[in-house]
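Contributing: when you submit paired examples, paste them exactly as shown. First protein:
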Amino acid sequence: MPRHYATLLAGTGWLRLGAQDGLSYDELRRLEQLTPQIERAAEFLASVGIASTLQHDDFHDGNVFVDMTEDGVTYYFLDWGDACVGHPFASLLATLRAVASRLEANGESDPAALSKLRDAYLEPWTDRHSRSELLEAVRCATQLGKIGRAMAWQRALAGATAVERATYAEFVPGWLRDLLHEATAS
């Protein structure tokens, strides 16, 4: 991931430097300064020993459909366009954001509910890893997941029309800005 991060930052056309919906030159400089932190996060995830797997990377309620019949319930997971092989905890980035957004829309902002959901997801690993190790792995995986999201938008827009690029181009710098804001807030 650190190598991909460096490549992403070097592709300044995608960053829309100086544009209203792009990164500022100062933000790019600060993102470049995050490189050691990105390297540490990747090293930590590798050291934890939880294997990479196929992960959806855009897993939220809008991408899960339920078919209820008299024979039972079948779930269909759609929109695998952002799927990748990566750390399984990176899936929590989109999932927890979607749940938080839904709670906020209903006037129910509840950090405890998000923690409970996260902890339920982590439960299968609690027999081999401490809570603090798992929480740090979640932090690192979701941090690196923001780089993955920027890369996914970059790939999606590579073959896009001019109209599509204009509509969605903000997402590459947007995910990197989100990474920067998280890193400077912690």
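Second protein:
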Amino acid sequence: MAMLGGVRDEAQTDEYMERNLRHWAEYGFGTWLLRDRGDLRVVGRAVLRHLRVENADEIEVGYGFHPAEWGRGLAREITGACLGYARDALQAASVVALTHPDHVRSQRVLTRVGMVYDREVEEEGKRLALFRTAPGWLKHGRP
């Protein structure tokens, strides 16, 4: 959570859950709970949702995993799956991802699935790196 804005208190967690449930009700996609294929234990979450970035409506892809799951390639796998859904089911013109400017591992995941660095933005007082799907991504079938 250090790279995602810190640990939420109970009120912030309730608001986060309500916001995600509203998104599902309105759009039919949003945040997924991720389970291990073998033993079905929860390993993290994936996000595909509408997000306002500098007053523009964007579709954001994101993920978070328990530290014990890091290094398994799950971030790349789920990001690719979410981008595939955004491309095929949503026909999204582009998809963005936000990461801490110093979070090199996350940036590596994003570039490996075909996203490119766009620019630095400030959201809720935090400096973030904005990545975006490469131009023409709908035609090229990436990821």
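If you have annotations for the second protein, write them as plain sentences, like these:
Helices lie at 10-27, 74-88, 104-112, 137-140.
The beta strands are 31-35, 42-53, 56-65, 96-99, 115-123, 126-133.
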